[in-house]
Amino acid sequence: MDPILEKVVTINEGTGQSAIADKHNDPSHPPKISSVFSGVTIDFDNDTPNQAYKPIDRVIKLKIEIPAGPGVNAGQQLCVITFGSQYVDKAGDPLPPVAYVQDEGNASAPFWMITNLTSSGFPLISLFGLSASSTARLRIVITPSI
Fold first, then answer.
1. 3-state class of 6 per DSSP?
2. How far is CA 130 from CA 39, 92, 139, in A?
3. pTM (2 decimals)?
4. 60 burial class (0-12, 13-18, 19+ CB within 10 angstroms)?
C-alpha cells in the first residue's frame, strides 16, 4: 500500500490511545472534479503505473484528454477540484493549504496554475494552449499550511 495512504494521527485519550485516520489521506473522502471545460475530459489517473491509485486530497493525479478539435486556449480554466474534506487549522477554522503542481512529461515548464486556492478547493488553469488530440498527466500535492 502507498505509504501516504497509511499515515494516521494518534491522539491520546485519557489512559488509552486511538488512531484516527487523516481524512485528507482517506480514499473514502476523495476530492471531486467539476465545472470541466467543454470538450475536455478530466479524470483521476489510474493508468499504468497508477493502477492502485485511489483519489485523496493530499495527492491528486489527473489525466486530461483533449480530443480532436480546436484544442484549448491559453489561460483557460479547465476544471474545479473540491477537496473531500475541508482543510482547517487546530481550532477548526478554514485554512487554505499549499499546492504544488507537476506536469508529468513537461516538468521543465510551468504549464499549469492553481488560482484562488481555498480551504475547500481550487480552479485549475492551463497557462499555455493545449493542442487537440493530446493527453496531459498532472500530479498535484496538497500540504496543510499550518
1. helix
2. 12, 39, 17
3. 0.80
4. buried
